[in-house]
Automatic annotation (TrEMBL):
PANTHER family: MONOACYLGLYCEROL LIPASE, MONOACYLGLYCEROL LIPASE ABHD6. It comes from Fodinibius salicampi. Keywords: Hydrolase. Residues 30-248 form the AB hydrolase-1 domain. The keyword Hydrolase applies. This is Alpha/beta hydrolase. GO terms for molecular function: hydrolase activity.
Length: 269
């Protein structure tokens, strides 16, 4: 959602994605994963702040998979197929909201194929329950108010509202959306977190109302190798609300990973 991306959209064998390539040798591979109501444009503000990385942003097929089959596990299978199709090896996954949940499940199922994780407003432990139906789905003001819970400031413009209303008014799309919403609530990852030993960067909005601050603290406690950074006056999508601050945390983390990798190679030699 939230408009079209300013970057070129690529297609390959049914997969739709952004690809920002780097000319630098040994550049890190990053895969950015959007949330339930997200889309390719969600990472545009962050992409404009960083460079020197090989970045992929896939469009996650939330509305293309039938409501009976869609789940985090099913999306993990899809993501694995995407990485194989695009030939992305050992990426660092950055996931927002449901995208974070997907990154965690990928790390659980394919631990040898994940270099590190970056989670921001991730589901997988606790998140606000919007219910299993949209009884007021034709009430534009009500839907706008609900959508704005994502942000500290009001970032929902008329174009974004048109996209959101198109989803909630479509029986098939709404059914798929509610199905994946139910699955994210049902699929609690707490017991799996100690098994995810990759380095994890947590970047959280202090005013996140959907996955509130205590959720970030829980991730920090349960993940063996995690670090947590806060952004003030920020809601559920820090990479959209404060891309400069988010980029600073991200690049510091990526430098640490690069130095750590070089140190391991030196010791091996």
């Amino acid at each position: 959602m939230f408009g079209t991306s300013d970057f070129e959209v690529y297609e390959s064998n049914g997969y739709e994605y952004l690809h920002i390539s780097s000319d630098e040798q040994d550049s890190q591979n990053l895969v950015f994963l959007h949330g339930m109501f997200g889309g390719l444009s969600n990472y545009d503000p962050l992409l404009k702040e960083i460079q020197g990385y090989n970045i992929f942003v896939p469009k996650i097929p939330i509305y293309e998979i039938s409501a009976r089959k869609i789940s985090i596990n099913r999306l993990t299978e899809w993501l694995h197929s995407f990485c194989e199709e695009i030939k992305v090896e050992n990426p660092i996954f950055l996931g927002n909201s449901m995208g974070g949940h997907l990154a965690l499940d990928y790390a659980r199922q394919y631990p040898d194929n994940v270099s590190a994780l970056v989670l921001t407003g991730s589901s997988g432990l606790l998140e606000m329950d919007f219910g299993s139906t949209f009884p007021r789905r034709k009430d534009r003001n009500f839907i706008r108010k609900q959508a704005n819970l994502t942000f500290y400031e009001d970032l929902i413009d008329d174009a974004a509202m048109e996209e959101i209303m198109a989803v909630v008014k479509s029986p098939s799309k709404l059914t798929s959306l509610l199905a994946i919403t139910r699955d994210t609530h049902a699929y609690n990852m707490e017991k799996y977190l100690p098994q995810i030993t990759q380095d994890v960067l947590l970047v959280w909005g202090k005013q996140d109302e959907i996955t509130p601050p205590e959720v970030a603290d829980m991730f920090l406690e349960k993940l063996p190798n995690a670090e947590l950074h806060w952004i003030d006056k920020c809601g559920h999508a820090p990479m959209m609300e404060h891309p400069e601050k988010f980029a600073a945390f991200l690049e510091d983390f990526l430098i640490k990973l690069r130095n750590k990798s070089k140190s391991k190679k030196t010791k091996t030699l």
